[in-house]
Design goal:
Blueprint lengths: L8 E7 L3 H12 L6 E7 L6 H6 L7 E5 L7 H11 L4 E4 L5 E2 L3 H11 L3 E10 L3 E3 L13 E4 L16 H9 L4 E12 L6 H5 L6 H8 L6 E2 L7 E2 H4 L1 H5 L11 E6 L9 H4 L4 E6 L18 E2 L5 H8 L3 E7 L3 H10 L5 E7 L1 H7 L2 H10 L2 E4 L2 H10 L3 H4 L2 E3 L24 E6 L7 H9 L2 E6 L1 H4 L3 H10 L4 E4 L7 H5 L4 E3 L16 H4 L4 H7 L4 E4 L7 H9 L2 E4 L2 H9 L1 H13 L6 H20 L13 H8 L1
Parallel strand pairs: 1-2, 1-4, 2-3, 6-9, 12-13, 12-15, 13-14, 15-16, 16-17, 17-18, 19-20, 19-22, 20-21, 22-23, 23-24
Antiparallel strand pairs: 4-8, 5-9, 6-7, 6-8, 10-11
Helix pairs in contact: 12-14, 17-19
Length: 634
Amino acid sequence: MPQPYSPSVSVVIPTYQQAPFIGRALDSLQAQAVTDWEAIVIDDGSRDATAEVVSAYLRDVRIRYYRLTEENQGLGRSLNEGIAKAEAPLIAYLPSDDVYYRDHLHSLKACLEGQTEAVLAYSGACHHYNRHAHGQIPGFPLQLVQCMHRKTTARWLERPELESDDLERLYWVLLRPLGVFAGTDTITCEWVSHPMQRHKIMQEPEGGINPFRSHYRVEEPMRFHTSVGHSIDEVDHYRMMRERPDTPRADDGLKILLVGELAYNADRVLALEEQGHRLYGLWMQNPHWYNTVGPVPFGHVKDLPRDNWREAIKQVQPDVIYALLNWQAVPFAHEVLMATPGVPFVWHFKEGPFICLEKGTWPQLVDLHRYSDGQIFSSPEMRDWFDTVVPGLSLSKPTHVLDGDLPKRDWFDQPRTPRSTPDSEIHTVSPGRPIGLHPHNVAELAAYGIHLHFYGEITHGQWLQWIEKTQAMASGYLHLHPNVDQSRWTQEFSQYDAGWLHLFESGNGGEIRRANWDDLNYPARLSTLAVAGLPMLQKANDGAIVATQTLTKQLGVGIFFDKTDELAAQLRDREQLQTVRERVWQQRHLFTFDHHAPELASFFRDVIDSASRKPGRATSSVAESPRVQSHRRA
């Protein structure tokens, strides 16, 4: 009788959406000098041709194929499944987009057999197309394709515990107490570089939690921490929101379809659900890291399928489509606009008209403003600027002004922290990029005893040269802090004297057509500073049209200056400074989305009523719709 096959090495091959790569990986495995291996392909919910490609290799009895579920479960789950099915005493890995060279398994196996104290062997690797490392790739943890280890009871961290590109944290750290890691010092594999590598999808600024969520179709909240970004714990952060019951639909409640992306402070939309409205989501593909898309981690929003959204909209029959928010969402929002002539459509644009010009999506943006049934502008200045793009726009349909990044009120219920340094020195804060504060500016501030506290390690990597130069010029006056989420804004930032808005000198001279993005924008940090009761520092752009200047002057919450000595004098006037601080604190509710949500719902009803009285609506044929006529001309 034939002896049962007994492999010496089990090769775990995790795969997801890698049909164009996996044939090359399997071919490189079959070309190994070592032949007594088994391959365990774990397909983690691919919707491409992966199964079809792999089927051609299943004639090789050493290769087995398993599909986890229809939905992606995460790298850790795939690897643990593969290890559980492995029959050999040695485990190697071959991600389906990577490649083995002929002697790879042989050299790793020989390394482990020759060093009994070793628990893991690792090879050198070709990486980033034509670079080579004889061991660990500089700047990265040991990669899967490099490694072979003895089979142990240790298991990879799975998605409910942590999602990360740091394989050291996910597994290698669990093996280190069991033995040494031995290098072969030979290059026997390739860690293939391409845009859809997992670590690139995860790491900001090219990737991030939202690109990761979209690509892997993650439906649950995550604990997410990349090797270059701050820790994000959506599970705990949104637990109270997610676990509360749905609000019963109000008698006059609307069915609101959110289209596009929600950017910062995305949980704000729950204020609409708490009023008894029903929320649905239809999200853009390929988001940037700050483009929040669903499934949203805070719940209470029902997603429509992205691959059959037209039919899904017909089934839901929303009362209004609320499309938003930044320039990346413009193409998809435009597509939905043109495909739904029978549904009242509101376009809310926060950021990027000038980027739309640069990226070539200006025609779609103009259509969104021209053919939407209602228009929301992020500032009055933005509304006036768009009236120069589409003259008479704000007079031709219902319009509304609402900042698109306002946070939810839930995060504002925290007491203030007393000033941490009751001395003669002044401590200011920048909650994010210190835009406009150049190293010489910080040095000038330091000369007047004014400190700058810079928060957000997301951006520290991009600002390393700035940090080094600033620290050299203003020693002891630049302080670096990790990112702080909404739950700690009040506690953390209220200890400072004042906070920085974007620092710039306007050049529009009071002419709206000359206004640029700095002039028109409400930066997201407006609310961050308001929740902490901090006066908002900015240039005194007298005679210019500047949105933040107009707003903060109206509310009396700003401190304006031209020269550093003017700023220092204002900040040292403790009585006046305290007056401004109290004024900010008393008006902080104006910077919450909840405060504006009832008025927004009323605006939606106005749009619905206005749209029902227009020709070409649901009571008319689709061909009559100006949206469809425009689409046909295009």
